[in-house]
Amino acid sequence: MTNIHGYGTAIPGNRISLAEINRAWGRPGGRGERAIASADEDVVTLCVKAARRALAHSEIEARDIGAIYACSVSMGYSEHTLAGSVALALGAEGALTLCDLGLSTRSVTAAIQCCVDAIRSGRIVYGLVVAGDILRARPGSECELTSGAGGATLVLGSPPGVAELAGIGSHTEGFIGRYRSEGGFPQMDDERFVFQQGFSVQTAQALRHLLGRTGLKAEGYARAVFGAPEPRWGARLAPKLGIAVERVFTLGGELGSAGCAMLLLDLIGALEQSQPNEKILALSWGPGGSDALALTVRERSLSQPTVAEQVANKELLTYPEYLRAIKLLGG
Amino acid sequence: MHTPPTWRIARENARLIGYRCRRCGFIEFPESRKTCKRCRAPSEFEEAQMGVRGRIVSFVVQHRLPEGFETPLPLAVIDLENGARVYGQMIECKSEELEVGLEVEADFRVFYDDAGLRVYSYKFHPVRG
User: Fold this and answer.
1) Of B37, B49, B128, B119, nearest in space to B91 by CA
2) B110 → closest Cβ in A13, A45, A88
3) What digits encode the pLDDT tens for the residues A229-269?
4) d(CA A115, CA A121)
5) CA A81/CA B103 separation, integer angstroms
6) Which of A178, B47, B51, B68 has its CA 20 to 30 Å from the CA of residue A301?
């Protein structure tokens, strides 16, 4: 059995409201906010911060970590290492497996599966799954309204922990839907098309695969997190999956989408609100398909600072300040 | 050629590891392992894990700097919890918040970009909450 021993998150303090973005482009309305990294924060600093907090929460020493699986779609290098950068900062060295994943936000659950496989095989006792992204979008584009930032880390291991990973289901298709050329801005085909033909179909299939393995109906899960690229997609799809809308937990309205980290941010936020024995569904999606995870909470445990504290601790930016922070304006 | 000097202090930079002079106890961060700045003489050093919190001893806010620097740029001399004295940039605070004795915390940030390679170290912000 694989268990979650600790978790940590890093949510930038800067926010921009969707109303402020719309005001800059002469559009009306806008509800919610997006998390914006400072100019001197990047995927590495967010992941290091989240990983340190997760290790502190788990009370496991860095030297006991056998593998680090890191994922990001926005690290900014074509050749580098996120996992290695985190290892250096943590002091995890020597006979350690490092694995960097990316290209699709679905890779966060691929990272979890890799870590689970290593633990179940007995090759490692504890492993880290680290995810971080700072998403940028073309100013004025639809994606600008959903691109957020954040980092998150899970400490997984074989001994009993604060939550248990009860099952994994997957569904793979060649559907892309959302993409970004190197150095460019994200592009998404027609939003309704991607939601209907991509996200809805593949997430439902992954969930069906998972439920077939666990033997539990979707109604049996107290909470569901989607980590979707568009924050509203999870609640839009949930009723069709047999999940009541009020059971969907997402920080997307407050933070936007944090790419690979979004699923873990939502999951950790849900774990910090859950009671023992509650069951949680976590469904990832990205180019290539979807993975579904089933978790059972063993004890309610809060990492420091909590997700709720970081969401509440914020400073609103003006549109020019936001453009400077994401380095699209100024030196 | 940026990699050798950056790599030699990467571990210390990433983990706030200083070096303590075995003779006088002075902690240096991050570079010296041969000559003590306080003794002004060759010495032996041992690793010292520095704390992440400290207090401002002195500070200055720079307003006129060459192109490439964002102004105003607050810089502070900080005494960390375990006795090390460091010099660092203050972030996430207004200039008028700065005062001698203010409690601050180290935060891992991008320090500069050297030929496309981002180099990391610590900046400091006031302890909140």
Assistant:
1) B128
2) A45
3) 898 999 999 999 999 999 999 999 999 999 999 999 999 99
4) 10
5) 34
6) B51
For helices A43-58 and A82-90, the axis angle rounded to 10 degrees is 50
Cα A228 from chain centre: 9
Measure CB to CB from residue A40 to each of B11, B68, B123 and give the nearest one. B123
Q: Which helix (H) or strand (E) holds A19?
A: helix A18-24
Predicted confidence pLDDT, tens digits, chain B (129 residues)? 457 778 888 888 899 999 999 999 999 887 767 899 889 999 999 999 999 999 999 999 999 999 878 889 999 999 999 878 899 999 999 999 999 999 999 999 998 888 888 999 999 999 976
* pTM reported for the whole predicted model: 0.95
DSSP, collapsed to helix, strand or coil, labels residue B111 as strand
State the DSSP H helix or E strand holding residue A117, giving kind and residue range, or none if neither: helix A107-120
CATH no., domain A2-160+303-325: 3.40.47.10
List Cα–Cα distances, B83 to A55, A71, A107, B30, B40, in angstroms.
25, 37, 43, 14, 19
CA distance B44 to B25: 10
Strand stretches in chain A, DSSP E: 2-10, 14-17, 33-36, 65-72, 97-102, 126-134, 149-157, 163-172, 178-179, 187-188, 223-225, 279-286, 289-297, 315-316
Which residues of chain B lie closer than 8 angstroms to A38, CB-CB?
91-92, 109
B101 touches chain A (CB under 8 A): no
Both tokens of A93, joined, read 């060295």
What are the residue boundaries of the structural domains of chain B, listed by start?
A: 3-126
Residue pointed to by tokens 């949510």: A11
Answer whether B125 touches A (CB < 8 Å): no
CATH class, A164-297 region:
alpha beta
Q: Where in chain A is the domain with CATH 3.40.47.10?
A: 2-160+303-325, 164-297
